[in-house]
């Protein structure tokens, strides 16, 4: 390697070493020993936090004991895409089981004011080309996304035979019948030849186990169950019932970024309790240009989302089709790499250039805070000191200006690692008690906890072994879809497969792959299939081999759900073996396409 640094070609107005030290300092003071256990499970005395406000009480139906070809657990985009692609594969007997009162998943539950997708809608909303639908704006708001969920369900006839307001409590394999027995909280004992678990990564609200949380005598709710009866207003805002209320919002992630402006505009006083600030970039939403929409050629959505998926992992593309805040850092990186020594760069030097481009991007994010927030102390507290993808970036034009309101107070808790305790009448942070009438938990969904805890049920497979037992020392799958000893059962979601920040593109290709396997089992007249043990082991080894660089990056990040609250890769963190396919979603899809083309179901045991 040359003694000349690639930085010699760049005119930097900052000290990279000083930034690295600052990032490390800010990370270390936020890491808690309790990791993911700092959150309490929403059951028992906390069960009311997951009550469904959107259905009429008193729903009942007779238990089901019928036999279904394909049961899909979860009615969000994963379940909808699985149902759609299964229909296209010729599978007629389909049932979707959903805990909510309708399809929509995350977008059924998330109706908080300002809720909006953070991936552009042309990439995010699935099946728009198939259904001939064009999103109204570049970034769709929650009502439109919820309506699109219903549109998909109607188009693919998924309402027929669906079971809403139903939670699965157990899956048990019947070897003699080659069927899964599905038990639910409606006393069902239905049977299914195939089961696809599409409960997704964002379905179980996360609640911090703050001392005194049960002592508070005011009103509380989680943002995923927004209480408009208490706040008044709607998704568009106008929360008029908060005019005489002192409100606390705990959390400053993607949900708070969107809801804080509406609460701040309506409440008598709003206290925002922050442990780690989000990266808040420009949103710049705009209506869809009808002339642009008319110009699109068949296959445009797949081309667009594949372009985006390559951009956000730093792979070179000829054109940035999306051209937004997500892809901006890699446009910067492209410019940085175009030095006179670009073709001579080693991997280490390329990584350094990527880090520099990241530093520059985050410097811009921090400058945006200074240029927006008038109080210097508040501005300083709102600055994120970490690499851009250590936490999911956010995009909003109203969040930062909200802190210029006289009725809005930012309470930074980073030095005390979060809120200290909750009393009967308020919240204590930094030794100061803030009296409030209402506490809103904007604390997101469980991600790093055990898969069976998030799903809400366990699986009993061949020989009576449970999935929780089988995964006690780490996740083990074949291609992220299926597990040895759990026949005809498939998982949709980001696990040991290709991931993307645009989850719907991941789910769509996964649904097509699983539909192919199901169809193959049927056409071959087989009873079931499941991964061969050696194939599963080899795949997990490959995932771990490829994930070394990603793991090192996450271990250095500020705590959050991406890295098990700063404990990524540690025993008991829930991340062992849970990394994704490091080359990315497009590379993984190409690998799966090649696997299907061979036609021999490599790695699967097909039992007739």
Could you walk me through the main structural features you see in this protein, from its secondary elements to its overall organization?
With 608 residues, this protein is an alpha/beta fold. It has a domain at 67-204 and 447-607: FAD/NAD(P)-binding domain (3-Layer(bba) Sandwich). The chain is built from 20 helices and 21 strands. Strands 2, 3, 4, 5, 6, 18 and 19 form a seven-stranded mixed beta sheet that branches. Strand 14 and strand 15 form a beta hairpin. Helix 2 (77-88) packs parallel to helix 17 (503-523). The chain starts with 15 loop residues before the first helix and ends with a strand. The model has no long low-confidence stretch (mean pLDDT 91).
**Number of DSSP-assigned strands:** 21
Q: How is the biggest beta sheet arranged?
A: 7 strands, mixed
How helix-rich are the residues, as a percent range? 25-40%
Count of separate DSSP helical elements: 20
List the SSEs and their pairings:
Blueprint: H1 16-28, E1 39-40, E2 67-73, H2 77-88, E3 94-97, H3 106-109, H4 121-124, H5 128-131, H6 142-155, E4 168-174, E5 179-184, E6 189-197, E7 207-208, E8 219-222, H7 228-231, E9 246-250, H8 254-266, E10 269-274, E11 280-281, H9 290-295, H10 300-311, H11 325-337, H12 347-372, H13 376-381, E12 394-395, H14 399-402, E13 408-412, E14 421-422, E15 426-429, E16 432-435, E17 438-441, H15 451-455, E18 458-460, H16 467-470, E19 489-491, H17 503-523, E20 528-531, H18 533-546, H19 548-555, H20 585-598, E21 604-607
Parallel strand pairs: 2-3, 2-6, 4-18, 6-19, 8-17, 9-10, 9-17, 10-13, 11-12
Antiparallel strand pairs: 1-7, 4-5, 5-6, 14-15, 15-16, 20-21
